[in-house]
From TrEMBL:
Pfam family of the protein (one): HTH_30
Protein name according to UniProt: PucR family transcriptional regulator
Taxonomic placement: Bacteria, Bacillati, Actinomycetota, Actinomycetes, Pseudonocardiales
Residue span(s) of domain PucR C-terminal helix-turn-helix: 95-152
Length: 159
């Protein structure tokens, strides 16, 4: 229990930093340090651009998987987004940004629209277009998870 309290204090201190820091789960033994370092690096990669503070390994499980298996994630994301990725650059980037913001705003077209400076109906139209192109329904948990994995892969690839 004291160890958990110590980690909470450490995390609280790291959260106040003006930089991003990755944290692995605690380890005991020098032989475990390479794996702990790898996990801390993966956790750090999960932070959004400009985000600072501490990110613990596993805080964002799906993003952690994407960050830990980048080659495989890129391959799967290309498959999920295949038709969308063939669009002209400007249209593709607008749709990808809309999807990223839509997820960041927990599926709220209204909140996503405010962040994107467009009308909520524009967000809804773009989301329908994404669903048509990817043949995935965001109302279906599996479809939503696959699109989230793909958009997180895109985000991390750009970081």
């Amino acid at each position: 229990m004291a160890r958990a309290v110590d980690l909470r204090g450490l995390r609280h201190t790291l959260d106040r930093l003006a930089a991003g820091v990755g944290m692995s789960p605690p380890v005991s033994g020098l032989n475990l340090l390479p794996a702990a370092l790898r996990r801390a690096q993966i956790a750090r990669r999960c932070l959004a651009p400009g985000e600072h503070g501490a990110a613990a390994f596993g805080d964002r499980p799906l993003t952690t998987l994407v960050a830990g298996a980048t080659k495989l994630a890129r391959e799967l994301a290309r498959d999920v987004l295949a038709d969308l990725l063939t669009l002209p650059s400007a249209e593709r980037e607008v749709l990808l940004k809309t999807l990223q913001v839509w997820f960041a705003e927990h599926g709220s077209a209204k909140d996503a629209a405010e962040r994107l400076f467009v009308h909520p109906n524009t967000v809804r139209y773009r989301i329908r277009r994404i669903q048509e192109l990817t043949k995935r329904d965001l109302a279906d948990p599996r479809g939503a998870a696959e699109l989230y994995m793909a958009i997180e892969t895109q985000r991390l690839a750009g970081a």
